[in-house]
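Hi Q.,

Before the meeting this afternoon, I wanted you to have the arginine prediction in hand. No need to reply - just skim if you have a minute. The sequence and ligand are here:
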Amino acid sequence: MKKFMMLLAMAAMTISALADEGMWIPMLLGRNEADMQKAGMRISAKDIYDINNACLKDAIILFNQGCTGEYVSDEGLFLTNHHCGYSYITSHSTVAHDYLTNGFWAMNRNEELPCPGLTATRLVRMEDVTAQVLEGVTANTSESERAAIIEQNIGKITTEAVKGTHYKAIIKPFYYGNQYFMYVNEVFTDVRLVGAPPSNIGKFGGDTDNWMWPRHTGDFSMFRVYADKDNKPAPYSTDNKPYKPLKHLEISLDGVKEGDFTFVFGYPGTTQRYITSDAVELAANIENPIRIDLRTIRLTHYKNAMEQSPAQRLKYASRVASIANGWKKWQGETQGINRLKGVEKKKDFEAKFQQWATGKPQYYNVLPQLKDAYNTLRPVEVELTYFNEAVMASDFMNRTLSMWRLADMDDNDKIVAAVNKMKNDNEKYFSDFEQHTVVDRAIFIETFVYMWQAGYAPYLGETTLSKSAIEKKLGKIYDESVLNNKTKLQKLLDKYTAKDSKNIKKDPAVALFDQAYNLAYDPQKLAAYRKASQDIQRLMRSYVKGMMEMQPDVNFFPDANLTLRVAYGHVEGFRPKDGVYYKPYSTLQGIMEKENPDIYDYVVEPRLKELYNTKDYGRYGTADKDMPVGFIATNHTTGGNSGSPVLNADGQLIGLNFDRCWEGTMSDLLFDPDYCRNICLDIRYCLFVIDKFAGAKHLVDEMTLVGGKQ
Ligand code: ARG
Ligand code: GLU
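Predicted structure with the ligand bound:
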């Protein structure tokens, strides 16, 4: 009997472990409902997405084109991540009112700050439009004809769908164009900043802790959507009223424990689940290492400079954040792929596919042709990677690009606009030229040398030459270019006309850039590259279709494409390496353990310490006087899921998704339930910060709180 129980338990475990992978289409969630309920969900698929009734999807927002948000009050108040609201918090910050550093809390509606350009999009409904989109496409239609027909059909369908409404419709391909869905959206444009914690809460741990667990970042910010008198989207106006959403999320104060069911409802950006072994090899073992090495060069110099003074720290902070974000993720991704033997796994699958495809003419040539296409694509892809990550690494070469473009202009209006822009940029550039040039010159030289040593900058000379000779050559280019001579440059720009273009072209920096550009963007190579990319798209369409025919019992999720998805799993710790087990939650105690007043990323606000010392957690702390901060779960997420609500079995808000664990970042290509974890902010810490730390209880009062100690 005991043995049988164990077998049962084991079987249940394998099923739930397998169930963790996937980002599912809300409209088709019925297919997952039984599995979700078995995993612990107590609501129905219709509670999540329902075309006829208000449902959870009405509480979800696409925040601009890259993050997710969710309504938490019936007056348009919504939550997203601090790093998603970052540029809006920054844009309202001045030396006198440094909201980024000190936080911002609107104490009444009049204090809420307009954010021009920010959009909050609600999905009204979605629809499978495959048949209409592919109308007129036959087995004999060529790829280019196919594209033209589809574009025309999409134009017709979307126009028709929103006729007479204020909605906007878009259609996106799924499974490489085997299926098409239309999304009818309502786009709100009067969105105002309501609250943000100080950076040492909202960005606690900074880039040091980024992608890592245990994590203690209070990564949230708050905004409010305003609408016209009919509750419809309208441009910013003082006459607008807080928007009344069809649905806002209930917030549970009960928290979660290991094993609890959770789901994430949001807008994942891109995954590549079905690509071939060649594509995985290219990404993980060819491109990632190049990008990582070249970014290490940049980061080393910027970080050194940031140690020099607070002004330098400020100057480089945001570029370091964005360079380091990819840099760190790719390291985790490559390690994860190799740990999983990802390339070999793909090859095994391909062998099975090939066997299955025997005697099926529509599939038999797909994999061999994909291989050919990747053989054409690979060398150009690598050159383009070098161009983006090495040639364009320095400010110097970015400024050279503007000059190089100017040399090709003959339209007078365009020239004037370009010259003015360059003058503006120069003013900033030369304002701390002495310091910045040390950093920028080193980055320019080292990235070009790296590329030259790898054989990708033949125009600098044979790789058998001495490294110091190349460094000297590059140094000379940097020092002698007019771009680094303030007086000469000013003179040149002040009286610039199309006739001066010959002179600019002779500048050593412009000449160097021209060589690098012509190598990477050689028209013939590029044409072959484009053709290979198109072939890959077409072949992948057949490959994925074949996979589905080969495994009719598998529920394949479509790759993420910045459309609304549901991912579900459990709160669960993991073993990142031998001898180490990560618990699934973190608490305020961890913040105090990390505290270091000398390290910018680990400064703790006195007020937060005070609350910690007096254990003044109000109704947000646990029964045993802990203040939860973060937790991890097995939900399959990716970039774009930032700010997504993490919900419990009853569909109540328990956290905000904001990151993934480094050891599992290969989940964009390959998901491993043993290592892949999403990182969530515990909603109780968020509410505690708003109420107890910031004294903005009026915002919590707008929300619907359930559970917890009353
Ligand atoms: N890794 C998270 C994401 O990909 C957070 C990035 C922002 N935070 C940072 N410290 N750079 O968006
Ligand atoms: N921080 C990411 C974002 O901005 C989420 C982390 C991930 O890539 O999963 O969307």
